[in-house]
Amino acid sequence: MKSFVLVGCMLASAAAYAQNDEELLARVKALLEDVPLIDGHNDLPSSILDVAAGDIDRVDISDVQVELPADLPRLREGMVGGQFWSAFVDTAFMDRGDSLRQALREIDTIHRLTARYSELELARTADDIVRAHREGKIASLIGVEGGHAIEGSLAALRMLYALGARYMTLTHFRTLDWADSATDFARHDGLTEFGEDVVREMNRLGMFVDLSHVSADTMRDALRVSRAPVIFSHSNARGVTAHPRNVPDDVLRLVARNGGVVMVNFIPGYVVPTPEELRAGIGPEAGRSADDPIWTAKRDSILESLRGELDDEREIERRAREWVADNPAPRGTLADVVDHIDHIKMVAGVDHVGIGSDFYDAGGPSMAEGLEDVTKFPALLVELLRRGYTDEEVQKIAGRNLLRAMRAMERTAMDLRKTKPSLRDLKPIRAR
Question: If you average pLDDT over every residue of the chain, what do you get?
Answer without folding.
Answer: 89
